[in-house]
Design brief:
Layout: H1 2-9, H2 13-17, H3 39-52, H4 60-71, H5 75-81, H6 90-105, H7 124-137, H8 139-186
């Protein structure tokens, strides 16, 4: 039942392949495992989306789809999972990664927030380059922390998706089994 609802919300794969901007890659997008709502494919798509969601810039969904294609993961799940990062969660997630990197490397330098990073609509042109300079200044400590954070989030996302899917299927089977038993008892 949940899969039917989810399928009705998602666009039809044929309509995506027929889109005028995506017709050139229609043969690549034709593989059914890229669109099928299967437990392993969706879990792998979630893991891919959690990793590519931390890519700075507006290319997260594109990279999620490009990585999902050769791995035969569910493309909509991979693209949806990238949405956990946004302008409000991006900096705290990078601060968390930096602190994880500090724990691993033993670096005792405190995190210095950028001085010129103030959000306003008039300074949005300067906000992104300043944010990228700040991220680059954090160096190896951030890279190590990001690698650990992304690995753990991908594994956790994969395992949680597999467990939740299994629990949902088990509950549905038990519900159907009890309904069948009630019908059989009423039919005697």
């Amino acid at each position: 039942m949940f899969r039917r609802k989810l399928r009705s919300w998602l666009p039809d794969p044929d309509s995506i392949r027929a889109h005028k901007w995506l017709q050139w890659c229609a043969p690549v997008l034709a593989h059914p495992r890229l669109w099928h709502l299967h437990r392993r494919g969706v879990a792998l798509g979630i893991a891919i989306g959690l990793v590519t969601g931390m890519i700075p810039g507006p290319v997260q969904m594109l990279f999620a789809a490009l990585i999902a294609i050769p791995l035969r993961a569910n493309i909509p799940a991979a693209m949806f999972a990238t949405l956990y990062t946004n302008p409000f969660t991006f900096v705290p997630l990078y601060v968390l990664a930096y602190n994880i990197g500090r724990l691993v490397t033993g670096d005792n330098a405190p995190l210095a927030m950028p001085k010129d990073l103030e959000w306003s609509w008039s300074s949005v042109v300067h906000y992104i380059p300043e944010l990228m300079r700040w991220v680059a200044s954090l160096g190896d400590t951030l890279l190590i922390g990001l690698a650990i954070q992304l690995t753990l989030s991908a594994i956790l996302g994969y395992v949680v998706t597999m467990v939740v899917w299994r629990v949902a299927v088990t509950v549905a089977w038990r519900r159907r089994s009890s309904v069948r038993a009630e019908r059989a008892a009423a039919g005697r």
